């Protein structure tokens, strides 16, 4: 009979002594891998070979001028006729463009409506500058609007078209196992986020490569240790980046870059046409790279009190020094038109390219897929309170511009999708 693997220390709240906790958990993770009969280096080499093959294929496809990002038509989502090859490509690449998610004229009208909403309410006179360090780095001011409750945003969030695409994306995940239903793929939690409006001629510094599922909590909390169990118990071949087990109930260490909700996919909906060379989103379209990132700090070239630069209150960084292989696969979205939507698996490395003297507008509404689950149900209570008062949601800086805006979206305007998403029905 195989002996049980040694337990891991865990911290459900941010440790007071981060360097000491990092040293402790790294030693325990190495011991756990060793107890499985393999070394960290052996386990890492398995995922490294997998990633190397994916990177080589992505680079070769780019050099041949072939698309890397899968693209599907909304009409196929609605009809249930998405080609099987497109579904396979989505699961392999972890990212997707949905063409015609909304009619182009609808998206352009929403963009105009948002401009009117902000101008009528004196937003630009009241604007106090970026409320966080992360999006404050992009350069053009304001680029990220701390606006959450405009009629345009809420109509998009609660639309049947959005719900269908979110359900399609959620269905790619393994959401039931061991007698537990980890989330409801057919019900979204209406996670409120901001908008981006970048005007023609703008200079923007972009955003460096990073990912958003968490920070040190990914190694240090009991739920995430169970979620990434195959990475650290010697069964790396069984790791499945599409398995939601234990990801929908645990805590996340607080910080200005945290996301309290579990998102299967991050996403945005285009409110303008954008060319692929105009400061757009890039991803490393390899979902399994998450296992590489989780194991990389355990290798001998990383100091014992360092997780490759990951710490609290900052996004999870991906840098040339520790991750040069991964960054070779960084790939831009294709050209998009207003009404298209763009989606990427919650664990994907992503960045936004810098741009100088931008051609055309670069406008988006951030709307993810955040299915109903214990974690999202808890956050929905704070979302309801923010919605009722026009406040900034708890995950975002407490700027509260919309509290006094009389024409923000109202509870009476919620449809059944919206009411379910906010936990009202």
Automatic annotation (TrEMBL):
Query: Which superkingdom, per the lineage?
Result: Bacteria
Cite the Pfam families for this sequence: Gig2-like
What the entry lists under PANTHER family is as follows:
DUF1479 DOMAIN PROTEIN (AFU_ORTHOLOGUE AFUA_5G09280) (PTHR30613:SF1), UNCHARACTERIZED PROTEIN YBIU-RELATED (PTHR30613)
The name this protein carries in UniProt is DUF1479 domain-containing protein
Taxonomic lineage is: Bacteria, Bacillati, Actinomycetota, Actinomycetes, Streptosporangiales
């Amino acid at each position: 009979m195989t002996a049980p693997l040694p337990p891991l220390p865990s911290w459900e709240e941010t440790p007071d002594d981060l360097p000491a906790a990092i040293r402790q958990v790294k030693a325990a993770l190495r011991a756990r891998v060793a107890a499985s009969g393999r070394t960290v280096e052996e386990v890492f080499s398995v995922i490294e070979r997998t990633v190397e093959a994916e990177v080589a294929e992505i680079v070769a496809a780019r050099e041949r001028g072939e698309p890397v990002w899968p693209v599907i038509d909304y009409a196929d989502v609605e009809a249930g006729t998405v080609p099987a090859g497109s579904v396979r490509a989505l699961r392999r690449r972890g990212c997707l463009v949905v063409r015609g998610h909304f009619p182009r004229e609808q998206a352009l009208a929403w963009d105009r409506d948002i401009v009117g909403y902000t101008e009528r309410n004196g937003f630009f006179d009241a604007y106090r500058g970026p409320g966080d360090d992360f999006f404050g780095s992009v350069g053009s001011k304001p680029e990220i609007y701390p606006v959450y409750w405009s009629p345009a945003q809420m109509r998009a969030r609660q639309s049947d078209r959005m719900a269908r695409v979110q359900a399609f994306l959620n269905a790619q995940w393994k959401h039931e196992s061991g007698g537990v239903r980890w989330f409801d793929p057919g019900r979204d939690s209406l996670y409120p986020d901001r908008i981006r409006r970048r005007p023609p001629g703008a200079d923007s510094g972009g955003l460096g490569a990073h990912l958003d599922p968490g920070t040190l909590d990914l190694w240090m909390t009991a739920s995430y240790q169970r979620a990434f169990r195959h990475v650290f118990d010697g069964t790396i071949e069984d790791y499945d980046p599409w398995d939601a087990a234990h990801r929908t109930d645990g805590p996340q260490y607080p910080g200005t870059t945290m996301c309290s909700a579990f998102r299967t996919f991050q996403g945005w909906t285009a409110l303008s046409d954008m060319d692929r060379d105009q400061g757009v989103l890039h991803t490393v379209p390899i979902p399994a790279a998450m296992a590489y990132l989780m194991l990389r700090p355990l290798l001998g070239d990383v100091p014992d009190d360092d997780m490759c630069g990951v710490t609290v209150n900052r996004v999870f960084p991906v840098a040339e020094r520790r991750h040069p292989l991964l960054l070779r696969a960084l790939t831009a979205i294709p050209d998009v038109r207003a009404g298209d939507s763009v989606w990427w698996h919650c664990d994907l490395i992503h960045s936004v390219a810098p741009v100088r003297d931008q051609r055309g507008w670069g406008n988006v509404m951030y709307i993810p897929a955040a299915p109903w689950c214990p974690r999202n149900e808890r956050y929905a209570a704070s979302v309801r309170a923010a919605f009722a008062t026009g406040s900034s949601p708890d995950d975002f800086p407490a700027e509260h511009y919309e509290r006094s805006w009389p024409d923000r979206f109202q509870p009476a305007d919620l449809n059944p999708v919206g009411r379910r998403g906010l936990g009202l029905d």
